[in-house]
Amino acid sequence: MFLGVFSVLVIVHRLVHYVYEFDPKYSPIDYGRFNFLSFFTVQSNSLVCFYLFVTAFAVFGNVRAQRIAFHPVFGVFVTTYILITGVVYCCGIPLAFTTPYQWDTPSHSMLSFIQVYHHMIVPPLMLILCFFPVNTTKISYKKAWLSAIYPLIYSALSIVRGAVLKPTFYVYPFYNPSFFWEILFKDKPMQTVPAYLLMIPILLVAMLLFIGTAALLIFIRNRRVK
């Protein structure tokens, strides 16, 4: 319960104390404070908050909360999302895909702490919780593919948003068709249709990452309850 409350306060603080600072690489346009909620990081951390709350209420004996918190698939999927959030973010640090940390002012320090908390603290905590299941119900490996439904819908909507809405905004650089085009074809002028078609197999591979991670967590969990 304490961890859930703290996590909610972190998100609320980011929304309430929003200050836009122009950055030509990471934030060239002010999309507003609520654009913060469009990031997969925030959504996956919000799911963690919900999971922590229902787990706390379940421990206190709430029957409805127990139906959600003690459902093994739900816990594995939430852990899958937050774990991939942390791994992708950490992989992006050496590639300069993430905003550099700044600790020079209270505002910058809080923003940097939020990045560390969401990507480096919450994921391992959820992983620990996942490895200590509250019931002995085993999960079928066939359910692992269901973990890709949410990120697939999220990815599709993010790509459409970047392509249709103005001003243009791609939540992450890899949702921009020019990102992979420039990597593969260097200085060759981008062709819109081929660039978007190129993203289809890449997106499918990304979904396999979610399915594979969920299957691995299911395997470890089933071994532990055995």
Structure in words:
It is a single chain. With 226 residues, the chain is mainly alpha-helical. The chain has one domain. The protein has 8 helices and no strands. The protein has helices spanning 2-16, 40-59, 63-69, 72-92, 106-130, 149-164, 177-185, 192-225. Helix 2 crosses helix 3, helix 2 packs across helix 5 and helix 7 packs across helix 8. The longest helix is centred in the last third of the chain and has 34 residues, at 192-225. The mean pLDDT is 91.
- Uncertain segments are none
Number of helices: 8
Helix fraction by DSSP (H/I, runs of at least 4): 55-70%
Rg from C-alpha positions? 19 Å
Report how far apart the termini are.
Answer: 28 Å
N-to-C order of helices and strands: HHHHHHHH
Structural class: mainly alpha
> How many runs of DSSP E, i.e. beta strands?
0
Number of domains: 1
Query: Which descriptor suits the 3D outline?
Result: globular
Task: Quote the average pLDDT.
Answer: 91
Strand content: under 5%
